[in-house]
Amino acid sequence: MLVVVVSVVFSGIQQLLLGEYRRAQSNETVATHILTETFTRRSLADDYLLNPTTRANEQWHIEQNAVLNAAQGYNTKAITPEETGLLAQIRDSITQSSKIFEQVEQASEADSTSKVWLEQRPIFAAQLNEIGQTTLSSATKLKEANTLHAGQVTRHISILGDVIGVAYLAMILLIFILIGRSAGRLQLREAEEAAILGSIGDGVFAIDTNKRIILFNRMAETLTGFSFDEAYGQPYRDILAFIDEHSHRPITGFIEHALTGQRHQMPANTLLSRKDGSVIPVADSAAPIVNDKGIVTGAVVVFRDITKEREVEQAKAEFVSLVSHQLRTPATAVKQFLGLIREGYAQSKKEEKEFIDSAYTSNEEQLQIVDDILSVAKIDAGKLALNKESTDLVALAQRAVDQLLGSAGAKKQSLTYRHPKHTVVSSVDPLKLSMVVENLISNAIKYTPDGGKITVYLEDDKHHVTIRVTDTGIGIDAEGIKQLFTKFGRIQTDYTAKVQGTGLGLYLAQQFVVLHGGKITVDSKPGNGTQFIVKLPKEQ
Amino acid sequence: MAKILIIEDDPRLEHTYDTIFERHGHQVVRAHDGEEGLMVAESENPDIILLDMLMPKMHGIQFLEKYDVRNNHPNTKIIVFSNMDSNDLQKQALELGATKYEVKSRFSPNELAALVNQTLAGRDKPTLS
Hints:
heterodimer, A: alpha+beta, 7-stranded antiparallel sheet, 15 helices, 14 strands, rod-shaped, B: alpha/beta, disordered C terminus
């Protein structure tokens, strides 16, 4: 727009100046013409005065007309006062010369050889010469004025040319800057988009309507095993081998649907066959690429590796299955013991009481499992709170040891407790901390062969209390240690069913210790026993 | 009277089964894990085995694989009696020759006794339910 306005303005000014220049030049030519014709007329007047023939007379009149015509050809548009004056002088001198020449003609007609003629002739010559001189002088001034004006206009045109040049240069520069900025922004945007696409944690690729790959981000490279250079421009089916998990048939429908303008989810159980032949489970969707005119120009496909999601789902399913089993086990015991009474199996009051006690204990176990699961749910929701009270930890650990002496005894294991003689008082949640200590001792009993040795140590210094549970059991390998405190850690090894348990005990123990501001660590090697260390800050 | 092998790691349940079957006049032999169960089964040659699934040392499925009831003990019946309510496990167990797969918590003492007696009488064919 700016360019158009500036161009129109410049063009107008230029036209005006050029018109002015042409007028000056034309008038300069006219003035020159007047000069030339005036010179000729003067010469012809001299000729006539010397020899007043009809021919010479005609010649003079022709020339006089030529001077007059020349003067009339002067362009008076936008004429200056000086020019007006000079032009008037010229016209006046032409009229004057005509009048004088009429007198010359009359005189010459009377008697061309007479004395009077001969006497008058120099006078006429002088008069004609003088008037001719006036014409010449005015014409010369006009010529000079026009030459000067033409020169000035030329300079103006030149200056305007420079101005236009500079202006156009400036505009071009401005346009380049704007384009540059716009291009810069575009480049920046493209770079940003490329960076964003590259950083997306999901695989992204796009195809045109010819189904050739036009975009392939870094994660797509990682997931497929193909590089961008290998993928770009290739038919997508050659690079992205989506197959059905069960039939292993190619899955392309969701992409083809996207090319018809509909967004589509990748079917469940889709695998991606990678460049190296390995497969990974993937999920997500394909969407049409629609331009600003609403035309589908391709499709963009997002896909992500759901191996971990599947593992979590699997672990959750196994967890639910295991928890159900663990809840059913004491519930079954409750049902069986009560059933024995209800269906008349008890043969004495003593046996009946024994069944009731067993049902009661089983019910407690069942409730404990429910509590554990609720604790996990609370931890997951970040809502598990501690009910702290000033507690003697020496006594707390003693109670835990006492409770489990029976279990250790059943496996002919020695369970020893070593502790300071003084009380070790700290502000803790006694129920949760008891659970931690009982869990560690109970695990030590479970994972230590019959006849093994389990020792519980309680030590303190000014700022910390440390409880260590050591055993001479089967130990744990490095991989096992990694899974030890995870919620589903037990699940992976549970199928081999070495020991029963929900796999929640150590997870909860760790969470409880962490809530107390402490730390639980493990030191173990397969076959060399295990030591769990709980270090808690001492709080008054 | 039949000889029943109870392979059960939970001492409470083992005790209730003991009580029930003895009251019904059966002879009871016991094992507390898969390994021990295999040993006792080989030596005692029971009429029927009440087999748990999740147990120390050897899982119930491993027991079935090793015991190979169809080929080696065609006269022994096996009731998988577990609280693992899993279609996969059930299918696997029945394929490995178990006569039945039942979920413990669904049975009262009398119902359990009836289950064993019916199985011994051969009135039930292997089921997937």
